[in-house]
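Handout, section B. The chain below has 158 residues.
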Amino acid sequence: MTIRKIQPDDNAAVATCIRKAITEFGVPTTGTAYEDPETDAMYEAYQGAREIYYVIEENGEVVGGAGIKKLHNNTDNVCELQKMYFLAKIRGKGYGKQLFAKCLDAAKEFGYSQCYIETTPQFKAAIHIYESFGFEHLEKPLGNTGHYSCDIWMLKTL
């Protein structure tokens, strides 16, 4: 298993990981990353300052990913963990925790003061990971990501 920065040729594989996970868990396809315009162009979407997207590669195949980017429509120094999804065959192997830690390290290196997450109740294992890393639940969303089907919001001071 390798965690590396996304490359242009990874776009289709990452989009597949995102959409498969969303449908497998029964998450709505509207108001989520499923229909997000960035999903089909992830490499291009993470080329700005203070943002990065990592992929997990296993045996030469992209099997998941996650990224850090400034929280959209928020003027504070807050980043968002974005599009953390994995194919079924690697879930439960501990890769998520490793990738999550790498993303938080990047957020700190970029100088963000807080990290925000939006998710849905279907992703119980991910929520448990977020809580174990010190993320706290919020009463309402921050910013305006356009992911209106996400109804769990969490925040951590870095």
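Note. The domain at 2-157 is CATH 3.40.630.30 (Aminopeptidase). Compare this with the example in section A.
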